Amino acid sequence: MNRQGGHVMDHNTAGGTDPGGSAPPACAAPRRAGGADDGTSPRPPDARSRGGRRVVALVVTLALVALFVLVSLGVGARGVPLGTVWRVLLHNDGSPDAVIVHQLRLPRTALAVVVGAALATAGVVMQAITRNPLAEPGIVGVNSGASFAVVIAIAAFHVTSVAGYVWFAFCGAVLAALLVYALTSSGAARGRHHTRLVLAGAALSASLGAGTGILTMFDSDAFDSYRFWVVGSLENRGTEALPAILPFAVAGLLIALVLGPSLNALALGDDVGASLGLRVGWVRAAGFASVMLLCGAATAAAGPIGFVGLVVPHVLRLLLGPDLRLLLALSVPGGALLLLVSDVVGRVVAPPGEVEAGVVTAFIGAPVLLWLVVRRGEDAR
């Protein structure tokens, strides 16, 4: 009997008929995973929920950015109601409120959007090419290079305008980043490029920071001018700084967005990426160029603003997963939102004065960094 039952079961499993000639059960037909036999069924519930969550995250982020753009245009030493802000945006009637919105706050708000988007996107790319989730754009020496160049501009060339600071800061940031990349791209260094990149950036930052400190110590005028730039402020900079850095920021953003699929492959490791046909060296060089343009432009315009490139990628990764294409796309509005919020908070916490955006982002980013370190330690255990 057992053999006979086994014989019948074998026939049913193979799609045959039983001894009685009955048709095979419907459950015996093979089914494709996650759908019907014809492949026309909808995606699994978990895939649909992930897609829905991504759409919701994008819509909510864009809506918050639009809201805080209006709030940023209305908040300040002289408040402007949101209804009035909307009215003068659509029709500049030359009133005092229109002058405040168009000439003072609109350039500042636009600069906050561009700088925040640039720093957050640079953070995503930097974490991808170094495979270090705690990396941030300034780790390649961009901030220290820009700071050193600004001090040189003040002390040696007596530059005092924002327009002059921008070009010196951008050149200093680019040169520092290129030096770090050149030191870590030799044949002997390619084996552990991402580790050497971090170490070389930290060493160069320390050296340039020491040089900046020496110059400001012996030149009080340079120190007085430098300290207003180094805190990371958006005040009275948009009109002169934004047109100068916008082309570089846009170029860096485009490079980063195009690199999304390649960075996903690079995240699997150099060997796996190469086996998939990825030109690892070129992808890493392009990613580094994107970080250099984005962070150099942002730092030149607003000064060193930390933690935006660290906080935004981590929050997005926790909410949406590790897909770098999605992280890069959402880091643009995410970074803009964080810097807009920081700038608005800085204007309202200490009236009639204000706290610089770089100080506020440090207050936000430092606890987040500590939480990330603790969380990673617990995950390691």
Would you report the number of β strands? 0
Tertiary shape: globular
The number of helices is 15
Report the biggest beta sheet as strand number plus sense, adding barrel if it closes.
none
Provide the structure class. mainly alpha
The portion of residues assigned to helices is over 70%
Strand percentage, roughly?
Answer: under 5%
Q: Average pLDDT, to the nearest integer?
A: 82
- Could you tell me the radius of gyration in angstroms? 27 Å
Straight-line N-to-C gap: 55 Å
H/E element order:
HHHHHHHHHHHHHHH
How would you describe this structure to a colleague?
By secondary structure, this protein is an all-alpha fold. It is 74% helix and 0% strand. It contains 15 helices and no strands. Helix 4 (96-130) packs parallel to helix 9 (238-258), helix 4 (96-130) crosses helix 14 (324-348) and helix 6 packs antiparallel against helix 7. It is globular and about 65 Å long. Mean pLDDT is 82; it is low at 1-43.
Structure summarized in a few sentences:
The chain has about 375 residues and is mostly helical. The protein has 15 helices and no strands. Helix 2 packs antiparallel against helix 4 (about 95-130).
Give the helix/strand layout.
Elements: H1 2-13, H2 45-74, H3 82-90, H4 96-130, H5 142-157, H6 162-184, H7 193-218, H8 220-230, H9 238-258, H10 260-266, H11 270-275, H12 280-302, H13 308-320, H14 324-348, H15 357-380
Helix pairs in contact: 2-4, 2-14, 3-4, 4-9, 4-12, 4-13, 4-14, 5-6, 5-7, 5-8, 6-7, 6-9, 6-12, 7-8, 9-12, 10-14, 13-14, 14-15
